[in-house]
Amino acid sequence: MCRQLDRLDHADSAEIKRSQERRLRALVRVAAARSPFYREYFRESGINPRSIRTLDDLPQLPLLTRDHLLERVDEFRVYPRRLMWAARSSGTSGRPISVYRTPGSSVYELCALEQQWGWFGLRPGAHRVMLRGSDFAATEPGQLTKAIPGARQLLVSSFQLIPSNLDAIMADVRAFAPVAIEGWPSSIALLAALLRERDEKLPVKAVITSSETMTAGRIALIEDVFCGPVIDHYGQTERVMMAGTCEHGGFHVFPDYGIVELLPVPHTESRWELVGTPLHNWGFPLFRYRTGDEVGPAPTQPCPCGRSFPLVGRVSGRVEDSFTAADGRPVPLPSTVIDDLSGVREAQIVQLARGRYEVRVAPAAGFDEPEVEETVRRNVDRIFGAGQHVTLRVMPRIPRSDNGKLKSVVVEGDGSS
Ligand SMILES: [Zn+2]
């Protein structure tokens, strides 16, 4: 897999297109024969799967949305469930979905990321400090960091980044001698802000970020404190496409990972929704999946890196407010609490006041209120730490924000009370 990616890294656009179309044809054949959803689609539409041969033929297949995964997820499977991993997410949209991944596609994901790191001179398996949601913070309270020797990682609890813990955390981090920092931008920025307050730096080769939109201010803070470039990548739980920065700052689509289409956003002149067709997940074929994430115009000049990977505008994806725990700790990326709820059509977590939260859900088929409530409480304990107050509110439809969007995270109180 890594060799294949490496070959396309230097390929011209014609070769990249040939490689995409070869795998597209094979995936359409698999789906037409074995996926109940696509079997039905080809039968009812009268379209011959063999007529889908090139990228130009792709629009013969229907666009998919989160609703398809919400209501018919198992009809997309072509492997038995036991041969795949299930993953869940609510993303920014507050509508939790499930997907399946083959072990091969998970390896592929890592290869694609490692290829990008290579552009910055970062080797696979480089020692990394990881800053994102970490279960150990709840299961081993009092522990601020945890080394994972096999993976050459040092986990730092994202939920313990307060001034009084900084000395202990930094002693572990410096002893670990990281080559890179990786994780949620909001958590990395919290650590960077704590270090800057003390006029301290932690030089590393690069800072690897994903899952949230990077603001210019955050990038400047992170690059200043960690003395290295930010390697940002964009992906989704559905893993239908990937894009990321190169060493010259270009934001490229990774064409070997998936085919990307840009769907014009209605009533705008220069915004497009990203639509992805993954080329690596043979057990769960999806075509033309609408990510719900939007980009602006791509740069018109070619990227100085010389790669034929298409450039896209930056993704305006997840920008989440942090919550504040009962004891005043900042809690980054609070949507992780509602990521794994099942039997709900819509979900949202609201901070009413410091340490007081409300999870709102709109039920879907199979909704089990006591079970959802139990999951919410367990997640809040695990992710935010003990001592928080959370209530579950069931409603037919969660109210939208002013722009009509359902937000997965809302801060209603100011967090100071
Ligand atoms: Zn580039």
Which secondary structure elements does this structure contain, and how are they paired or packed?
Layout: H1 2-9, H2 13-34, H3 36-45, H4 66-72, E1 85-89, E2 97-101, H5 103-119, E3 128-131, H6 136-139, E4 145-148, E5 153-156, H7 166-176, E6 180-183, H8 185-197, E7 206-209, H9 216-226, E8 230-234, E9 243-245, E10 251-253, E11 258-264, E12 272-278, E13 289-295, E14 315-316, E15 323-324, E16 330-331, E17 344-353, E18 356-363, H10 369-384, E19 389-394, E20 409-411
Parallel strand pairs: 3-5, 3-6, 6-7, 7-8, 17-20, 18-19
Antiparallel strand pairs: 1-2, 4-5, 8-9, 9-10, 11-12, 12-13, 13-14, 15-16, 17-18
Helix pairs in contact: 2-3, 8-9
The structure holds zinc ion.
Zinc ion is lined by residues 246, 248, 250, 252, 303, 305, 307.
Q: Could you explain how this protein is built, in words?
A:
The protein has 10 helices and 20 strands. Helix 2 crosses helix 3 and helix 8 (185-197) crosses helix 9. A hairpin with a 5-residue loop joins strand 15 and strand 16. By secondary structure, the chain is α/β, with parallel strands linked by helices. 29% of the residues lie in helices and 23% in strands. The mean pLDDT is 89. The structure holds zinc ion.
